[in-house]
């Protein structure tokens, strides 16, 4: 079950030092070669010993925290990984190795025609639910369900029956991602959100489309996160990137 995590950690270069780590209200950020993001955990604990120790550690050391069951630590670990992988250099390397670069922007909008009439599951309640439900037979599965959302255990019953599955990359933090990918192996599977690493490892582990971002204006994003902001506040400072095993459009 740890293969996905171990291979992401292996992707991080040795010797790179973390310049800054910020755990904001919504997003966690590590700044090293670039800026990497991960969703902050709402389940903060007082028992961990990480706060106050991150700056100056190597990114590799911080990356290993992704395997922690303390989700504050795991978010730091994922943001550290993304501070190395989520760059234009990495994106170009993935494309040069035969994978496809799809149009940038929202994965939901990009796949609008592909989704129409299909059975679609969404792991995580994204803002696009209402519009998406007009195009397809949509099921939303959430850890804290609201309205017509279904609770977590529904994945075991419903994912194998879906044509398309959207998986929030915050599942890497709570460790449900490997099982979700296993259940979705016969579906077109998209991992999406600012927490998503731009790594071909995800393709090898069952993801068909990676939908993440590259931070272009690091100081603007850093300031927004420090002040409690979300993606709406810094969307003009990032580029949303879509990479795929093949052209699914």
Can you put this structure into words, describing what you see?
With 249 residues, the protein is of the alpha/beta class. It has two domains: 3-88, Enolase-like, domain 1; 99-219 and 233-244, Rossmann fold, CATH 3.40.50. It is built from 13 helices and eleven strands. The chain has helices at residues 3-10, 59-63, 71-85, 88-96, 107-110, 112-115, 129-133, 155-158, 171-174, 177-183, 200-204, 218-226, 231-234, and strands spanning 20-23, 27-31, 35-39, 100-102, 119-123, 137-142, 150-151, 164-168, 188-192, 209-215, 238-244. The protein has an eight-stranded mixed β-sheet with strand order 4-11-10-9-8-5-6-7. It has a three-stranded antiparallel β-sheet with strand order 1-2-3. The longest helix has 15 residues, at 71-85.
Write the layout of secondary structure elements.
Layout: H1 3-10, E1 20-23, E2 27-31, E3 35-39, H2 59-63, H3 71-85, H4 88-96, E4 100-102, H5 107-110, H6 112-115, E5 119-123, H7 129-133, E6 137-142, E7 150-151, H8 155-158, E8 164-168, H9 171-174, H10 177-183, E9 188-192, H11 200-204, E10 209-215, H12 218-226, H13 231-234, E11 238-244
Parallel strand pairs: 5-6, 5-8, 6-7, 8-9, 9-10
Antiparallel strand pairs: 1-2, 2-3, 4-11, 10-11
Architecture (CATH level 2) name of the largest domain = 3-Layer(aba) Sandwich
Mean pLDDT: 92
CATH topology name of the largest domain, in short, is: Rossmann fold
| Count of extended strands | 11
Order of strands side by side in the largest beta sheet? Answer: 4-11-10-9-8-5-6-7
Tally of structural domains: 2
The level-1 CATH class of the largest domain = Alpha Beta
Q: What class do helices, strands and sheet pairing give?
A: alpha/beta
